[in-house]
Amino acid sequence: MQMITKEGLIRQLRGKGLKITPQRLAIIDVLVENRHLHPGANLIYVEATKRTKRMSLSTVYATLGEFTQQGLIKSLEFDRTENRYEGNLEEHVNL
């Protein structure tokens, strides 16, 4: 199973020519630490603001969208709850 790691995400960001900002690092930390929870943007925002004060919810959404678009993480979309995010890019079932 391909598991999300901080070092792996940073390496992929650099490989794609994307900047490593304090906000992105805080979001990466939260994604890695909460990988088994498949965190949503609100949880990521709350936890990331503990690491860096210069963070907005719109920054979290934009960063998660960019990470998803770049293929760094996967977005899990639901009808009645917020999207969740994970770093396991292999095909598998989420219940």
List the helices and strands and how they pair.
Layout (H helix, E strand, L loop, with lengths): L5 H10 L6 H12 L7 H8 L8 H13 L4 E3 L7 E3 L9
Antiparallel strand pairs: 1-2
Helix pairs in contact: 2-3, 3-4
The overall number of domains is 1
Total of helices: 4
**What fraction of residues sit in β-strands?**
5-15%
Helix-strand topology string: HHHHEE
Chain-averaged pLDDT: 84
Unreliable residue runs:
none
> CATH superfamily, called what?
Winged helix-like DNA-binding domain superfamily/Winged helix DNA-binding domain
Write a structural description.
It is a single chain. The chain has one domain: Arc Repressor Mutant, subunit A (Orthogonal Bundle). By secondary structure, the protein is mostly helical. The mean pLDDT is 84. The chain has a two-stranded antiparallel ribbon. The chain is globular. Helix 2 crosses helix 3 and helix 3 packs across helix 4. The protein is built from 4 helices and 2 strands.
Brief overview:
The protein has 95 residues and is mainly alpha-helical.
Features:
single chain, mainly alpha, Arc Repressor Mutant, subunit A, two-stranded antiparallel sheet, 45% helix
